[in-house]
Amino acid sequence: MRAAFKTRAALAAASAALLMLTACATRLDLPSKDAGLRLRVQSSVIAPGNGGELIAADALEAGDILLTSIATVNSFGIRLGTFSPVSHAVLYLGDGQIAEAVGPGVRARPLAEVVDEEQMVVAFRVPGVDAAGAARLREWAMSQVGTRYNTVGVLLNAPFVLNRRLCELPLMPEAVSSYCMSGMAMVQLGASRNDQFFCSQFVLEAYRQTGLPITRADPRWVSPADLLHMREGDVPSIAATQPLRYVGHLKYNPPPLLAADGP
C-alpha cells in the first residue's frame, strides 16, 4: 500500500509539474449577440501564410517594434525558456536605423544588418504614435547609446518566466493572475537594475520615458515573448494598455524550436 501511495504521489507531482510547464494565459470571452461563450488560449504561431505576410523595410514606421530570432545557443535558450519563437526585441528609429540593448550595451545600427543577421524578423506597431512621439522615442533611445546591459535583470528574469507560469494556470481569473504575477515579480526581480537595460526592457522603457507606455507593468518583468503576446487577437500574459498591431515579417526563415500553437 505504501508503494502504491508513493507511486500515486509521484504521478501527482509529475502531473502538477507538467501542468505548470504547459500553462499559458487564457481568456474567457462571455457570450454576445454574435458569438457564444469562447475560451481563448495564448498562441505563439504567426507566420506568412498563417495570418502573416512578408513586407519590405519601407513598410515600417518610426517606433515599430521588431521581434527576432536567430540560430544561436543564447537565442535557443531564451526561446526554450519562454516557449516562444522570438528571443530579441529591437526599436525601429526610422530612416533605416534601429536601437537595441545587447551584451556590449545599448547601440544604434542599420536595420539592414539586423535583417541580414537574424533568421526571423517580425514587426509590430504601437497604435497612435505620431511624428512628435516618434521623435521623442528616437531622442531618448539615442541618448541611451552606451548604457550598460542589464545582465542581472536577464539572469533574474529567466527563473521568473518559469515560476510565473503558476500564475497562468488555465481559467485562472485575470485579477488573480495579475496579483500573483505582481507579487512574484516584486520578490524575484527586486534586485535588478532599472538604469541598465536588456532588449525588451529597453523598448518598453523608451515608450514609458516618452509618455507612451505600452503596459503599466515594470519593463523589467517583460520578455520578447510577452511583447509578442501583446498583439491583437492574442492573450497577453502581461496586460498591454492597447494591443500591438501586426505589421508583417521582414524575414521568415525560422531557426529550430519554433513553439507550436500555444506555449
UniProtKB/TrEMBL annotation:
Name this protein carries in UniProt: Distant relative of cell wall-associated hydrolase
NCBIfam families for this protein: PRK11479.1
Gene3D superfamilies for the chain: endopeptidase domain like (from Nostoc punctiforme) (3.90.1720.10)
Gene Ontology MF, one: hydrolase activity
Keywords per UniProt: Hydrolase, Signal
Signal peptide: 1-25
